[in-house]
Amino acid sequence: MTMKVLFARASVLALAGALASGASAMAQTKPASEANSVEEVVVTGTNIRGAAPVGSTVVSVSREDIQASGAVTTAQLLQETPQVFNLGVSETSRGQSGGSGNITYGTSVNLRGIGPYATLAIVDGRRVIPQGTSGQSVDPSVLPTIMLERVEIVADGASAVYGSDAVAGVVNMILRRNFDGVEMSARYGAGDNYNERQIGVIAGHKWDGGQLTIGYENGYHSALSGLDRDFYRGDLSAAGGGDFRVTQCNPATLTINGVNYAVPATGVTKTTAGGLVANTTNKCDNLKYQDLLPKQEHDSVAFTLDQQVGSAVHLFADGFAARRKFALRSAPATGAFTIRSTSPDFVLPTGVTATSETANYSFAGQLPLNVSSGYSKAYNFSVGGDVKLPRDFRLTATYGYGLDTDLSLSTQGINSTAVNNAIASGAFNPLIPNNPASSLAGFSNAVFFAPGWTILQTWDAKLDGPLLHLPGGDLRVAVGYEGQRFTTQIGIFQGNPAADGSYTSSYRRFARNVNSAYAELLVPIVGPDNAMPGIQKLELDLAGRFDEYSDIGAKTRNPKVGINWQPMDGLMLRASYGKSFRAPGFAQIYGNSSALFVQNYQDPTCNCTITGVAMSGGNLNLQPEKARTYTFGVDYQPAFLPRTKISLSYFDIDYRNQILAVLSDLSLLGRESQYAGTGIIVRNPSAAFINSLTAAPPAGLGLAVRGVLPNPVPLFVDGRSQNLGVTLAKGVDFQLSYLQPTDRYGDFGFGLNGTYFTEYKVGVTPSAPLVEQRNTIFNPLKLRARGSVNWRKDDWAAYVFVNYENSYTNTVPKVQQKVDAYTTVDAHLAYTFFKDGPNTWTKDLTVALDATNLFDTKPPFVNIGESVNGGGGFDPTTTSPVGRVVAISIDKRW
């Protein structure tokens, strides 16, 4: 049965049932003034108009919370929520699954830390264009914070409502409507060798039956160099850690027949080679020179538009456009260069015979640092309307179109071909410290150019309303159809412009059509009219969705059941059960690129750093990820504390067929035993195996090498995406809010939001044993919480936020380490001048002082080595290297 037939049958049945019903569900006639007003109905986690999700709780970030936050982007705002983990895809944490594809340094929402692509981010309840060179996920920073009315997070499987990606939950960013006037804001903050700014303006106008609101924001933060943070370093031995400095230095370390020889500061020649000492190395801290944070600047604009046509038709539109630019400075170029006996600079220590040797060398101070730069540009708009039908039914139709273009570019990478040719001819000698500048010509001109664009078209139609009236209330139904058309082009161009170099390029275009049908039924079993002792309210929600994918041949059916039971005033018990899924992305199926990446890995067997290679590429056999979720919760609003709400939610997630990729995981060897027998980690691969990957077809795969291939290769890692992972996650979300108004001292409030994991077991393959990973490095912590105390009186407002992350175990080194808990304090103090004054320029003028990490608390020491993804004495997934930032902001409304 086709999707169109399914939708048509469901719609006809629902409408026929509504019109045939004798229930008193006919909508009452409204006054003309009210009929022409703009009605905002934005709900999260359900298709039933105007209803809250049954069985699930909503974590809400209000407009007031947004104003009190020190965040300069929407992504930073969401990461203040304890349910959102900084794992995998962000500008500061790129070492986990998904991080290798984040070459434009965007951010995705990772609820509960289960996966960077397992959370669906939507705008006003609708899908929008994803970002990244391969269009993997939505970066919340495409929306200006000044245009956010609120953010709603439903941390519960929601594929029955929204389809793919809503495994861990959904984040709904709701735009401001019905704004009347003009508001401008400006913010500047500074820290230690770091600064940021934000400028925004919003304007709106309301008229009889319509409104237009539009907002713009410019945001910026500077880069943060590793040189500016003393806790970031390679040699951690003074703190009881390892020495993770590398041997690729200047002077070099010479390797002959597997034995290392430290080249002296004066260099080494044929006449002085006899003095080389076996089993010695030179060590240096090259990664100290890289940026821990890229420089980022974004411009974003968003709008909402509504118009009532008569009393029955409501037209609407909304959209956004955003541009984000980035630049990140890399570490000095290094390499393991082969010097053959035919080279004039070939040397041998006394008594040693060999035909080749390897110079582990660094160009620090000789070649310019390579800079990755680029942009992410996106726009998305939706237009639609809804029509009121008899018996309070409503038909809604929407069309959406979005385009995203991303680019990552670097032009000063190491040209290994030019270096090797110069070594072979004697034009460049890596065994002496002071080569003339002319000998370095053409060494730093390797180009990496990775563009990508994605188009998303969506169209949907939904019919919803009351089928009939039951003793407990109206039996409501929603049925609908949703279509999606994804088109993505992935491209990579890399190589050397010199005549002796070569370019490799790959430009591929992929398309996907998705057809979906869904239905949802809200059954009010007990309501105000038939309430009884112990059951004041009892309602059941049944939802189901069918999705069909054109490119992977997948057909998925995902149900969800939710129930709410209110036994007494102020107490609500709820539960839900559902199945969710996530379709693999184009980059995971086909790969952004197929190459060998030369990378430094932390090796716990020697407590040092070794150089290995990781293979990237696609996997045509990937299947959709699947999950089963249970939640149980309670909401309590005690009568004796009328402004208090307590919420507890237990979650149980069984996530299988999870797509994992370890391409960017440079601490992978800390879990080497878990990958035994998978072929993902291979120690000391044979030269024949490596040649089968790099040799041109048909002798090999012809993979390009990013970096300088060590000889021999001590480690091979298969970094391609695979359906390997199994995750079992259980825990409790908790929320508490309290407000105590006083006539004399103002209003005092208290809030608490957090997540406590009771279990987080992971299997790296479907047959592997499940290993408890809760409270271990690069996995969800047992407890994350954010508490707040706020006070308001007259024109003053003050907030204090406390962020807490418990201690955890660093399992990467051979001797495991206990990492200290981390607590930071943020503060916000604001004063509004002359709220009722006659002066146009001072009325509604607010000045605020903000401090993020008020006490400049440094990250706790973590015994992990430096990498291109952070590390080097601190954990970038749980802490920020920025430190204290003090900011002043001004907000003016007319």
Automatic annotation (TrEMBL):
<keyword id="KW-0732">Signal</keyword>
<keyword id="KW-0675">Receptor</keyword>
<feature type="signal peptide">
    <location>
        <begin position="1"/>
        <end position="27"/>
    </location>
</feature>
<dbReference type="InterPro" id="IPR039426">
    <property type="entry name" value="TonB-dep_rcpt-like"/>
</dbReference>
<dbReference type="GO" id="GO:0009279">
    <property type="term" value="C:cell outer membrane"/>
</dbReference>
<comment type="similarity">
    <text>Belongs to the TonB-dependent receptor family.</text>
</comment>
<dbReference type="Pfam" id="PF00593">
    <property type="entry name" value="TonB_dep_Rec_b-barrel"/>
</dbReference>
<dbReference type="InterPro" id="IPR000531">
    <property type="entry name" value="Beta-barrel_TonB"/>
</dbReference>
<protein>
    <submittedName>
        <fullName>TonB-dependent receptor</fullName>
    </submittedName>
</protein>
<keyword id="KW-0998">Cell outer membrane</keyword>
<feature type="domain" description="TonB-dependent receptor plug">
    <location>
        <begin position="56"/>
        <end position="170"/>
    </location>
</feature>
<keyword id="KW-0798">TonB box</keyword>
<feature type="domain" description="TonB-dependent receptor-like beta-barrel">
    <location>
        <begin position="357"/>
        <end position="854"/>
    </location>
</feature>
<keyword id="KW-1134">Transmembrane beta strand</keyword>
<dbReference type="InterPro" id="IPR037066">
    <property type="entry name" value="Plug_dom_sf"/>
</dbReference>
<dbReference type="InterPro" id="IPR012910">
    <property type="entry name" value="Plug_dom"/>
</dbReference>
<dbReference type="InterPro" id="IPR036942">
    <property type="entry name" value="Beta-barrel_TonB_sf"/>
</dbReference>
<keyword id="KW-0812">Transmembrane</keyword>
<keyword id="KW-0472">Membrane</keyword>
<keyword id="KW-0813">Transport</keyword>
<dbReference type="Pfam" id="PF07715">
    <property type="entry name" value="Plug"/>
</dbReference>
